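Are you able to produce any protein sequence you like plus the matching backbone structure tokens because I've never seen that pairing?
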Amino acid sequence: MKTWRNTIVEKSETCWEAMQGPMDFVIAISGRFKHGKSLEDIAARFGAISATKGLLYWSTTDTAWRTLISDAFALRNSETIESRRDFDAKEVLSGTPLYFMQDDTRSTGLNKYSLSASAPTRGRLVIRIENVTETRFLFLTLFEPKTLLSVHFIDRLGPNSWGYYGLSAVRKGFIDGNAKSFINRGAAFYRYLAGAAGDSEPPLAP
């Protein structure tokens, strides 16, 4: 029987296939957590876009915990910026691309993202998230559309125990000197998914 540790290479290869093309920068984060009793519970956590508001991460610039996301909401479709209630588990598990807006406190204005999911078995959920619009800081374009990508694997390990493995990548964009920031942002999302407080653990990249 495969252990969680022994499946990491397999997941890395699958993540690379999902990313489709060369990347300038990639981080990988893995862990275990207890949260929810069903795959639907985990899917609903991904769909709870508004719950990410106030998410904390460790800022190496400020050497302090600070807010990463100041606003976030689900969208009715890809063509609008009209908000709606959070996505439920059924919508996430449908495999239909879902869209949401997010205000990163290190960029200017709201940014649009797409989220698509697949559940090849009752014990595995795969989520792919990609930026739809460009990310700007004032008049500077930091990232063009479709250049920020993350792929998240969640596997059942026990009745309410889950294994997580994810890759977050930059296809092309402004990454000079920001490697630690990307690591800490990835850790922040993992803690959110696990239901842990943003500042509950020491930063991965102090």
